[in-house]
Amino acid sequence: MRPGEIHALLGENGAGKSTLMNVLVGLVRPDAGSASLAGAPVDFERFTPAEAVRRGVGMVHQISALVPAMTVVENLAFGDPRAGPWFRPRRARRAAEELARRFQLEVALDRRVEDLSVGERQRAEILRALGRGARLLILDEPTSVLTPGEAEALFASLRELRDAGRAVIFISHKLSEVEALADRVTILRRGRVTASLRAHEADALAIGRLMLGRDVPPLQRPARTRGAGPPALEVRGLSAPGLSEASRLRAIDLQIDAGEILGVVGIDGNGQREFEEVLAGVRRPTAGEVHVRGRRIPLRARALRAAGLAHLSGDRDGAGLISAFTLAENLILKGSYDDRRFFRRGLLDADAARRAARAAAERFGIEPADPDAPIALLSGGNAQKLAVARELDGSPPVLVAVNPTRGLDVGSARFVHDELLVRRGQGAAVLLISTDLDEVVALADRIVALVRGRLVAVPSTADLALIGAILLGEAAA
């Protein structure tokens, strides 16, 4: 890294990006090698996270490192060596407000982190890292939950940091972002550097080939299979309380036919979490009903799943998987004791579960493929692949997929996209709730926007700029 540059770090899931960055922030001690910061050598025997912060290294991780029970203001002050021994709420809030204005990252500063959406948590993480004046700032997938406008505002802030002589390591799977932002690119594959070059020296296709060791085929959209009969999924007059007034669901109506992907776009905090939780059977609505293939279904988790509605959670670590469970255990986590593939007279057939886990690992490219390995040992991308494998098991007629490729590399994301399109071609209905506009535009047959808890129609001719304006309430559909 050089002062005054934005350096993109790319690679497949499991290529070693997070491990390398964790070395730089003092979380992982290397087996060999050396490093220096601002010309001074690093003593890895004594290089702790606190020492990394003191020497000007800051990182925003994919998984939130904020304290859930604290407010955003408290988290920004917590652990900051410059804050002093006493917490001064007014001073801390003024500093947080100034940071939010300076970097154009809107966050509810007085709310507890546990009540924030995933996107709001990430924005708070970015504010905290920037607020500590890091000379080397590491951002791991920082735009995964931002709209194009928000991402461009962040890019402007990063360019300002670069122009001020700071160094920024930018980890992203969005090659278009890398082309637009980075000065240099380093590519990892299986723990080794395969290339280090200036960003203008390679296009997205060449970068993808260096990452994967092969070309990424173009996305294929098979012809739709339109099913006869009632809609596969119909939501009527659905209302539900929200974590905030903006996220309260307000009389949502939608329907999805068999063989159709309906994309729901929105900025986190506008009701996506509440909508997802109602359809998962874990949030009680105040009004409305849900029909699957013409039959009204009680909004309870077991009843919805039995009716054929699968749910790929947008909060993989908090609600989708259990990190202490093994691959095999997570794969059958949503199963039922009457599933004769894995249960005999109410008892778990562990060998059958392991065989299924091995087959899923082979098909979805999950590494490590050990069915007895705990999920905590998997990279974020490999863990997401397991969650996708579980939800697609049994070919459910309806799939609610929330940010299905968040944190996945180019090859893994393409695999998931292909799977969704194959299921669509086989007649399944997919409700795709995503903050990634490119993903929704590429996959969806129709698009609607979720704005302050209401669904807003998106014209079929809308481009990304217009969709972003609709999400921000700056344009009428």
Written description of the protein model:
By secondary structure, the chain is α/β, with parallel strands linked by helices. The chain has 2 domains: 5-212, 3-Layer(aba) Sandwich (Rossmann fold); 233-316 and 392-471, 3-Layer(aba) Sandwich (Rossmann fold), CATH 3.40.50.300. It contains 17 helices and 20 strands. It has a 6-stranded mixed beta sheet with strand order 4-5-6-1-7-8, with helices on both faces. Strand 17, helix 15 (410-425) and strand 18 (429-434) form a beta-alpha-beta unit. The longest helix is centred in the first third of the chain and has 16 residues, at 148-163. The chain is globular. The relative contact order is 0.12.
Write the layout of secondary structure elements.
Blueprint: E1 5-11, H1 17-24, E2 36-37, E3 40-41, H2 49-54, E4 57-60, H3 72-77, H4 89-103, H5 118-131, E5 136-140, H6 148-163, E6 167-171, H7 175-181, E7 184-189, E8 192-198, H8 204-212, E9 233-240, E10 249-256, E11 261-265, H9 272-280, E12 287-292, E13 295-296, H10 301-306, E14 309-312, H11 316-320, H12 327-331, E15 343-344, E16 347-348, H13 350-364, H14 380-392, E17 398-402, H15 410-425, E18 429-434, H16 437-443, E19 446-451, E20 454-457, H17 464-471
Parallel strand pairs: 1-6, 1-7, 4-5, 5-6, 11-18, 11-19, 14-17, 17-18
Antiparallel strand pairs: 2-3, 7-8, 9-10, 9-12, 12-13, 15-16, 19-20
